[in-house]
Amino acid sequence: MRARRKKWAPAELDSNPLIIRPTAEGAIPLRAHFNNSRPIHMEIGCGKGRFITENARRNPHINYIAIEREQAVLAAAARRGEALAQETPLSLAFLLLDVTELATRFIPEEIDRLYINFCDPWPNKKKWAKRRLTHANFLRLYTQLAIPEVHFKTDNRILFEFSLESFNAEGWKMQNISLDLHANMPEDNVVTEYEEKFSKHGPIYRLEAMPPKAMR
Fold it and tell me: Bigger pLDDT: 36 or 4?
């Protein structure tokens, strides 16, 4: 579902200092952008920005970046981030980008953790399976970028079971698997807007996964 058009979004995209605006094609050097040696954590799809901004507030020793393909969504999240940044320093950035561009726009070994929160489950149609962000094709993309770990949350049991099978088939190691995250909420869990709304209707599923090359 596409976000509703926001008349103020184009101006926000042009002026918000937290938005990265690449000047050319090719890889975007995140390490150079943040200009420090701290870990870089990335979120695919940022919603209204609560998850990424709250993580940045809690963990000033980590760089955070969210990628989002919808302009209106990105503008709203970046506006939220800038408002918080005016109160406390944040190492935070936003980028208008489709997940399919990851391999060509980022440098291997720069991203230390990837968050996938409540992505589209693409249910019912087998032909849609390849669009799921935990499909084998995407897992190979994350491996290509040498991302050491992926943290995944969803409220869709079918997607979660599909993801367990995908990670296992690709040789990823999984840990901290939860079939009801909110039954024993971890202290470091940042609740997204979607999670807050839909956790009332059923369990939240979560796992952490590491590709074969990242295993110890």
Answer: 36
Sign, CA torsion 70/76/80/82: positive
Mean pLDDT, range 112-135, rounded to an integer:
91
Between CA 147 and CA 18 the distance in angstroms is 23
Q: Which amino acid is at 103?
A: A
Residue 83, CA atoms < 13 Å, CB-side half-sphere: 11
Q: What is the pLDDT of residues 66-122, one digit of tens each?
A: 999 999 999 999 999 999 999 999 999 999 999 999 999 999 999 999 999 999 999
Q: Identify the residue whose tokens are 């149609």.
A: 125
Task: Specify whether the CB–CB gap between 113 and 170 falls below 8 A.
Answer: no
Distance CA 76, CA 6 (A): 9
Cα–chain-centroid distance for residue 8?
A: 24
Q: d(Cα 176, Cα 179) in Å, to the nearest integer? A: 10
Q: Is the pLDDT of residue 27 over 60?
A: yes
**H or E stretch including 57?**
helix 50-58
Of the pLDDT bands very low, low, confident and very high (cuts 50, 70, 90), residue 1 is very low
Just list the catalytic residues: 120
> Listing from the earlier edge strand, what are the strands of the sheet with 205-210?
19-20, 92-96, 63-68, 40-44, 113-117, 150-154, 205-210, 173-178
